[in-house]
Write a structure and sequence with these properties.
By secondary structure, the protein is of the alpha+beta class. It is globular and about 50 Å long.
Length: 169
């Protein structure tokens, strides 16, 4: 896909959102069911069923997906797609590239071993390795806009309001 094709694809969508801002608000959903035989949750991904379980550092077997890994995978996926969209829109040619994310967890927090230890990632590092001949100022612009428009990155960085409820069925 080139920049003109992307612009023509997105132009009517952007116009609709400008004219009817409420139409731009979409509720995404995820759903899972608790496994009745293991400490696991079966998550419907829209393409397949993903089974999430405990990380080996908390007693899991490693056979199920770790939700922390899934969070990093979602970040990599979103950042990679955003990078490609921005590079396409700006006509910045990328010969190839990789996106990687790594995060540090202290499992004492989630296991309740140390109440002072945080539950969750202490730090997440997102990295893009790209093969391109464009000057550094173009790469800087590409990175800045990728950060700005990556939904998962912005969600992690800015910590949206989250509500939790439990209902008896």
């Amino acid at each position: 896909m080139d920049a003109d094709t992307l612009r023509s694809l997105q132009a009517p969508i952007k116009d609709r959102y400008r004219n009817a801002p409420d139409s731009a608000v979409v509720t995404l959903r995820a759903r899972g069911s608790l496994d009745d035989t293991a400490i696991a949750c079966k998550v419907e991904t829209g393409r397949a069923l993903a089974v999430a379980g405990l990380h080996p550092a908390t007693g899991g077997s490693g056979a199920e997906l770790c939700s922390g890994d899934m969070l990093l995978e979602a970040l990599v996926a979103c950042a990679g797609v955003t990078l490609k969209a921005v590079s396409t829109a700006l006509a910045i040619p990328l010969k190839s590239g990789t996106v990687s994310a790594e995060g540090d967890l202290d499992f004492r927090g989630t296991l309740g071993v140390d109440k002072e230890a945080p539950v969750g990632f202490r730090q997440i590092r997102l990295r893009f390795d790209v093969d391109t001949d464009v000057p550094q100022d173009k790469l800087d612009q590409l990175l800045k806009l990728t950060e700005r428009y990556c939904v998962v990155y912005q969600t992690i960085k800015n910590g949206p309001k989250v509500s939790v409820s439990m209902v008896r069925v």
